[in-house]
């Protein structure tokens, strides 16, 4: 009976994963995404701040934003990361802690955790259903090789991920963060969220650019 129950659960997990992948554009198409650029506005207390996000598949992530006329950025690649926010008084880029760099590696896997999850050494578990802001969702736990945990909440109707809850450690302290996604639209055959909210606040995407050339230099950490 235990073996049979495991098989049913595994089939259910695979079904949810496959429907999510199809809803996002399909495995073959998603696997061809090499770069993604998002142009956004962040709502900071009623003030809109321009924000640009650059992601190169398995190479790096860079965020740029202008605040009070000052250029700020955060960059992380496969080896290191740094942040530079002069509006907060920083005089030079500051290195990210190694555990934060490690926790951000999954953020520039443009295929996402679900495609090839076994080959990536991930452990996925379907944990039933849970309501998120009035929407019933499938809840999937992902445990990474470094023991970091992330929970995905997948809308039962659209099969899009509408929330991610991540637990990770920074400087020995456990952090817990939600990121919500909505207003999904098709862009060049892919379905992407045009509204997001998380630690930075509410964010609206005005434009996505897929597979533009992003040179490695964009993701290099500046040291001063």
What does this structure look like?
The protein has 3 helices and 13 strands; from the N terminus they run ααββββββαβββββββ. The chain is mainly β. It has a single domain (2-219), classed as outer membrane lipoprotein receptor (LolB), chain A. It has a 13-stranded antiparallel beta sheet with strand order 6-5-4-3-2-1-13-12-11-10-9-8-7. The N and C termini lie far apart (62 Å). The model is unreliable at 1-11 (pLDDT under 50).
Task: Please name the defining characteristics of this protein.
outer membrane lipoprotein receptor (LolB), chain A, 13-stranded antiparallel β-sheet, 15% helix, mainly beta, 13 strands, 224 residues, disordered N terminus
Question: Can you summarize this structure?
Answer:
With 224 residues, this protein is mainly β.
Mean pLDDT reading: 89
The end-to-end span amounts to 62 Å
Q: What percent of the residues sit in helical stretches (DSSP H or I)?
A: 10-25%
Structural class by sheet pairing and helices:
mainly beta
Oligomerization category of the chains in this entry: single chain
CATH topology: outer membrane lipoprotein receptor (LolB), chain A
Parts with pLDDT < 50 across at least 5 consecutive residues: 1-11
Domain tally? 1
Strand order within the widest sheet? 6-5-4-3-2-1-13-12-11-10-9-8-7
Element string (H = helix, E = strand): HHEEEEEEHEEEEEEE
| Shape call | globular
**How many beta strands in the DSSP annotation?**
13
Look at the structure and give the CATH class. Answer: Mainly Beta
Shape-level CATH architecture: Clam
Relative strand content: over 45%
User: Rg, please?
Assistant: 18 Å
Number of helices: 3
Quick one: biggest sheet?
13 strands, antiparallel
């Amino acid at each position: 009976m235990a073996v049979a129950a495991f098989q049913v659960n595994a089939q259910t997990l695979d079904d949810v994963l496959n429907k999510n992948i199809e809803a996002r554009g399909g495995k073959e198409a998603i696997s061809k995404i090499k770069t993604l650029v998002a142009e956004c506005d962040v709502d900071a207390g009623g003030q809109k701040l321009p924000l640009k996000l650059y992601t190169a598949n398995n190479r790096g992530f860079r965020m740029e934003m202008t605040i009070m006329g000052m250029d700020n950025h955060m960059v992380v690649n496969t080896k290191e990361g740094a942040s530079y926010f002069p509006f907060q008084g920083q005089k030079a880029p500051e290195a990210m802690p190694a555990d934060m760099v490690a926790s951000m590696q999954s953020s520039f896997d443009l295929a996402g955790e679900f495609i090839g999850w076994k080959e990536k050494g991930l452990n996925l578990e379907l944990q039933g259903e849970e309501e998120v802001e009035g929407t019933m969702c499938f809840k999937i736990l992902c445990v990474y090789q470094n023991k970091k945990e992330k929970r995905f909440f997948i809308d039962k109707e659209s099969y899009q991920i509408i929330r991610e809850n991540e637990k990770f450690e920074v400087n020995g302290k456990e952090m817990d963060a939600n990121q919500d996604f909505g207003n999904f639209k098709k862009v060049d055959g892919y379905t992407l969220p045009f509204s997001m909210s998380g630690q930075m606040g509410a964010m609206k995407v005005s434009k996505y650019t897929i597979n533009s050339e992003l040179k490695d230099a964009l993701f290099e950490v500046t040291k001063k």
